[in-house]
Amino acid sequence: MKTPRRWPSNAGSRYAAAREALRERAAPHLGIDPRALGAFRIGLALLLLGDLLVYRLPVVGAFYTDDGVLPRSTLAELYPFLETVSIHAASGSARVQTGLLALGACAAVCLLVGYRTRASTGLSLVLLASLYARNPFVINGGNTILIVLLFLSLFLPLDARWSLGAGRSSDPGYRDDADEGASDGGESGVGQRVCSLGTAVTLLTIASIYAANVVSKYRSDAWMSGVAVPRIFQIEEFVVLFGPFVSDHTAVLAAINWLWIALLSASVLLVAATGWLRTGVALAFVSAHLGMAATMRLGVFPFVMVSVLLLFFPPRVWDAVELLASNLPGPSRLPERAYRSDGGRATETASPVTSRARRGIRVAAAVLLVGVFVALVVWQAAGVGLVDMPASESAGELSEVSWSFFAPNPPDTSSWYVVRATLESGATVDASDGGPVAFDRPPDAADTYPTTLWHQYGHRIRYAGETQYRPLAAYACERTDGSVESVTVFHVEQTVDPNGPVGEPEPQERVSVTC
Fold it and tell me: Mean pLDDT score of the chain, rounded to an integer?
């Protein structure tokens, strides 16, 4: 009679031992140092604050109110689902939109300091997704990656280090140094990485983004002939800061073209490698993305990727960071979280009913996480043409906010806008400066877009129909004096090759409205 009672216990012990052995083997590849999680949380929060306060707040009236370029009526006509689910679409008032941005900023501050981290992450996710849904014309692939990272962060113990909430909550994926058996293969440090389904999915998701990107580049004639990067740097509306200084060096840009493909090809080492090799690959990606930020107008994308790459740095890197920080003047070190070997806090006890409920929640969360990861992989495979989408119209949406990074076919035209104002006298002037209307290539096409969001908006609607352009023309009318009778919006394109512009600019009239 005793054997049947011992058998489940032995089976449970064997299962636990196998699970711990698997965790130990996977930790160097799919685990994350707790200090990396803390740094990632801080970077993620700073990105949210930058996106909300630097990019969005100054143009809230233009992009998120009924008096702007996308009133709610137009959003409902173009994207009825987005208009239905967006909290920001509940009102067209600038005051309400500003209040929602302020609420999002407050949630980001809580995330920054690690206060109620999971709740602040969830609130940030909801508000940011709602904001992006309110105007899908002012987002790019970097914004969609940011949304995905916020979702994945719900499954990570972001307050494991450098957090006001350290020690308050628990996460089953993290073990304290004295309890966790998974080592880092000889690497030193606070010691053991957080290794859970959440960390594995997060790291694999980033690796899959790079993998899908390199596949799309292998399928591109422009990238595989070495002309993609030189051609991209001739699209002046994207080139800012130090970009104009390198745009004339075609040979250097061609070398960057091949180096980027080689680095993307090595992206598998972010997961497969450990130690200094993994550190070197992660540093190379960080350097590449910082180079993009210093030369091109890409919004939050480069900074999103730099933040998430922090998760790939092994413990020895964070040992050096903490050693450096300990030598700097400042406040004492924040408390760290303490866990038992079973994943809970040492002072917690749970009833059998509570334990079963928690197990149920964990199982449901695991199923959701795996399902989302599979969906992301399929979405990326569809984006590079490896999987057919069930509906043909989905392909267009994929290309607009995908993670393709100018692949497989980088643009071969530079474009800008001209808004012609017709006065009551019959004369015409440029609505932007009151000068004569000219369709010639501007000295700097980037200067024709006042901000990054205006550039994203112009890039997204360049081939749109009259429905999208009419609110833009009405918005331009509102900003002219009473002598303007009508405005006409022109989209101007000029073909470029790796050596510069080709041919003459070609203006195309998009819409004309009476003011």
Answer: 86
